[in-house]
Design goal:
The complex is a heterodimer of chains A (383) and B (339). Chain A is α/β, with parallel strands linked by helices. In chain A, 38% of the residues lie in helices and 11% in strands. In chain A, the strands form 3 sheets. Chain A has a 4-stranded parallel beta sheet, with helices on one face. In chain A, strands 9-8-10-11 form a 4-stranded parallel beta sheet. Classes of the chains: A alpha/beta (383), B mainly alpha (339).
Chain lengths: 383, 339
């Protein structure tokens, strides 16, 4: 039901082979993934890692490899010396990296809302400073306040990080130099960049393999899928014309969720039609004219946006947008979409889009059950 | 120009300061390592660098792999920016000029943004260096008319190239997705947090060559500051000398920027600071600016990484600490470039 084309591991996309207009972000994102040869040079330069990879012109083998990974065929491979057997995966930069199995000292700049679901927070020796600002996480990770925070995914503090002697660093594929600088210290890095709900679920399964919690990971993914399936069943009767037109706005009110990405998937799963679905970019910027022309019925704001529904209501340019006129502008809760909580987000969105089919009370009960099954605690009052 | 009494002392202190300061800063960091252990740890790191099979203790890894390259890079970048600043100010005979006047920072910023946004296979330092130096060349080429390069035209063409690069940078920032945008913004802020031996190896040759040329030319910079006519009367081809000084300054500044991002204020303020301390005579000013720049950026970076519960951008420290200090010095003395 999650209609996902053969989207490669994390960020590896079919777009590598797709003809595309130059200078569009889709091409950029593609380059991140496929550019391989020169990237490898840099990697060798910095970390001495030897790796083989398919060149850009040879996308087919790379795609096949990505497919193999999608199908769960991560191959056992010798890890770094002294680390025992490892697994080899393709990361969010499109690099092939060897990861240790069952790491004991993990620093999480990312995935910190996945690790509690897998029950492996005892392996944490460090966590992103951002994680400490999440009340939910404080309930899941006892002693979170005392856990060292060697920076954030944006700003890694190398000395603090190395002093923690991690055997695995989880971060997101942001700047390759950052990952390479950490790897130069002999620390394996898993950098991810999920671009779809399926990517997130694959990340959970991958972390299950890495941490030796395959069964738990399968359970969690199964539980997430169950909620998404129930949602699909509940919304099955929605006629084609009954899907509200949804606009998702990021940190500024003209940057929208485009046709790809986790938010795009969530809107679809919640029974909405993403007004920006025809824009192939991840998070394109559009003009106010475009937004008005889209006539969205519902607007969802990113949880950390510095503006709120009231700001849109007060803005004359937004006054004629149906969602604003009818007061259907919502701020997404601060649930991490790159975690099992994406299902909770989908349910919350669905309750906004289809309150007649999924009454808010029932939606909250679903969300609560999901949290209890996955994390063992209810979601909490904070949004 | 005769040196004021006391400037000899100031000069002596300035040129010897970086070494003890480096030792001091090497002992500062989030993990407590006693200064007494430093020599042993550095020796251990050195052994491990020569012989990859040699073991490296965690403390030695921190000192050798993380702190030492960062300390050296701070020294190198600071001295490059300050030395280039002194060179540019002499070449233009203008105290408002800084090493980025020819558009190096704008070009480097654009290069890094393009690499981050569209060409992830291209190492950011390479792109930043290439476009930084390219911008300076472009500015020089634009200013060149009938074989002459009037300094004022050069400043203006530098402004034009900077503006062009900045607007293209805005375009890039506008089109990329927020995550890559964040990466660009972080690069622009300037930081030494990713410093390692490879970064040092990337930047050091250009900085060494650039500063070496400036050092070798330090006598002639005095002639240049007299003005083109006077220089010609003394048998110096001012135009060619200016080109050489600018090329050396640009090489040093672009090499520095390529690994550190844009760290402002050092290249403008430190030459002035050095001039206030040792006087405007370039035989002393150039080495003094180079040493003071290195020491200043090293101190600022050590504060940025070591004094707070988390790292703060070094550019914030350089400006916050440098600006008031500069004002105090400026108010307390007769300005040496108006006399």
């Amino acid at each position: 039901m999650l209609k996902n084309p053969v989207r490669g591991f994390f960020s590896v996309g079919l777009s590598g082979a797709a003809p595309s207009r130059p200078f569009k972000s889709r091409v950029c994102s593609t380059l991140v993934i496929w550019h391989p040869t020169h990237g490898a040079l840099a990697v060798r330069f910095f970390s001495g890692l030897l790796m083989t990879r398919a060149g850009r012109g040879r996308a087919a083998p790379a795609l096949a490899f990505a497919l193999a990974l999608v199908l769960g065929a991560a191959s056992p491979a010798p890890g770094a010396p002294g680390m025992g057997p490892g697994i080899t995966v393709r990361d969010g930069f499109g690099r092939e990296v060897s990861l240790p199995v069952r790491p004991r000292r993990v620093v999480a700049y990312e995935a910190y809302e996945i690790l509690p679901a897998l029950g492996v927070t005892d392996r944490l020796v460090g966590i992103s400073r951002y994680a400490k600002a999440r009340p939910f996480l404080h309930r899941l990770v006892p002693g979170l306040d005392a856990l060292p925070a060697p920076g954030t995914g944006f700003s890694v503090e190398l000395e603090r990080l190395v002093t923690l002697r991690p055997d695995l660093v989880l971060t997101w594929a942001w700047r390759r130099e950052v990952a390479e600088r950490i790897e130069a210290q002999g620390i394996p890095v898993l950098a991810v960049y999920p671009r779809s709900v399926e990517d997130v679920l694959r990340e959970i399964e991958l972390l299950g393999r890495v941490f030796g919690r395959e069964d738990r990971a399968r359970q969690v993914v199964g539980r997430v899928r169950r909620t998404l399936r129930e949602l699909e069943t509940r919304l099955a009767g929605v006629p084609a014309g009954g899907r509200p037109r949804v606009l998702f706005l990021w940190g500024r009110p003209d940057r929208v969720a485009g046709g790809t990405g986790v938010q795009a998937d969530l809107i679809r799963l919640a029974g909405g039609t993403n007004v920006a679905r025809d824009l192939p970019e991840l998070n394109p910027v559009v003009s106010q004219e475009t937004i008005v022309a889209w006539q969205p019925d519902v607007v969802i704001l990113w949880s950390n946006a510095r503006y709120g529904p009231e700001d849109l209501a007060a803005d004359p340019r937004w006054r004629r947008v149906p969602a604003v006129r009818r007061g259907r502008v919502f701020r997404a809760p601060r649930w991490y979409p790159w975690s099992p909580r994406l299902a909770a987000l989908a349910v919350r969105y669905a309750a906004w889009l289809h309150p007649d089919r999924l009454p808010p009370d029932e939606a909250e009960a679903w969300i609560r059950d999901l949290h209890l099954d996955v994390f063992g605690v209810p979601p909490g009052p904070e949004t | 120009m005769t040196a004021r009494p006391g400037t000899a002392w100031a000069y002596g202190i300035l040129v010897t300061a970086p070494l003890p300061l480096a030792v001091l800063c090497l002992g500062v960091g989030s993990s407590a390592i006693p200064w007494a252990h430093l020599p042993g740890l550095v020796a251990e790191g050195l052994r491990a660098a020569v012989d990859p099979a040699a073991p490296l203790s965690p403390a030695a890894a921190v000192v050798w792999d993380i702190r030492l390259p960062r300390v050296l890079l701070a020294l190198a970048v600071g001295s490059a920016l300050a030395g280039a600043g002194a060179g540019c100010q002499a070449a233009f005979r203008n105290p408002l000029v800084e090493p980025f006047i020819l558009g190096i920072s704008g070009g480097a910023a654009l290069g890094s943004a393009l690499a981050i946004a569209f060409a992830p296979w291209l190492p950011v330092p390479v792109a930043a260096f290439a476009l930084g130096l390219g911008a300076a060349l472009l500015a020089y080429g634009l200013a060149r008319t009938r074989g002459e390069v009037p300094p004022l035209t050069l400043v203006l063409s530098g402004v034009v190239v900077s503006a062009l690069a900045t607007s293209l940078l805005s375009l890039v920032k506008f089109t990329v997705d927020p995550h890559r945008l964040q990466a660009i913004v972080h690069w622009l802020m300037g930081s030494l947090s990713l410093a390692g031996w490879p970064a040092l190896a990337t930047a050091a040759p250009g900085i060494a060559v650039g500063l070496g040329v400036l050092w070798a030319l330090r006598w002639r910079l005095n002639v240049l500051s007299l003005g083109d006519e006077e220089a010609r009367a003394l048998g110096v081809n001012a135009g060619r000398l200016r080109l050489l000084v600018l090329a050396a300054s640009s090489l040093a500044a672009a090499s520095a920027v390529s690994v550190s991002g844009i760290i402002g204020w050092v290249g403008l303020m430190v030459p002035h600071l050095a001039r206030l301390l040792v006087g405007p005579e370039h035989r002393r000013l150039v080495p003094a600016a180079v040493c003071l720049g290195g020491a200043f950026l090293l101190a600022a970076d050590t504060v940025a990484r070591g004094l707070f519960p988390f790292e703060i951008p070094v550019g914030v420290v350089t400006t916050l600490s440098g600006a008031p200090f500069f004002v105090v010095l400026l108010k307390g003395r007769k300005s040496p470039w108006t006399s």
